[in-house]
Amino acid sequence: MGLLDFEKYASERRTSGDPHGTKLRDAVRTAQRSECPLCTVLDEQERARLHWLAYEGLTDVGLRKKLRASKGFCRRHFRMLFDAASGQIYNLAGVADVMSDLVRDDIEALTSAAPGGKRGRRAQKVVAALRARTRCRLCEAADEATERKLRTLLEALADDAFRAEYAASPGLLCRPHLVIALTRDVDDVVVDALVGKHLATLEAERDGLAEYLRKRNHRFAAEPKGDEQEAPLRSVKNFAGTWPG
Hints:
The protein has twelve helices and no strands. By secondary structure, it is mainly α. The chain has one domain (34-240). Helix 2 (22-30) packs across helix 3 and helix 6 (93-112) packs antiparallel against helix 7. The longest helix is centred in the C-terminal third of the chain and has 29 residues, at 188-216. The radius of gyration is 23 Å and the shape is elongated. It starts with a helix and ends in a 5-residue tail after the last helix.
């Protein structure tokens, strides 16, 4: 397993994949309305990570050991991995190997606690054995990627020209990523750019939602429908983001 392959899965270095933030800048420039460019880049990166895992990553002995400690992945990443392995790669052997380890561990956990003893003690021992000792490895990788990409974006927004591009783009940081960004050590000019763009978007969405609800009233239902029909979906995207999908 090569280093670059491993970095698709594990902690990526700042210079790996997108050393100059080119993909992130392009995502800002091409973002559609209510599309978070950070969500877009992170989603693409995670799918590449899952693709690599499904294709060959699960055969790595060191990773397999770590997966036994984490009891595999979280539910969302388990489902995404299986979908990638079964629907895209057609390689379920790696999944089967990992699951064989996990199933054996759970069989041992469920049978190891001796019957008897104080009430509830056996259940406590089994639960302790079933619990993961570490976090989902893909969740850890996603958190690290989020922090790295966000830092890259904030550094880019310190540039006057790119800040103007962000202001002109139909997309913007979703509310969750905006909150994270504002907890970092950011220059006021960047804060003003982020907050100003978000506020302008919210005001437009407020008007769009009001128009949508007005046309839901039977008195105005016959009026032609327009852009306001997308206002509920746009608002949800702005509030919740689009990644993880």
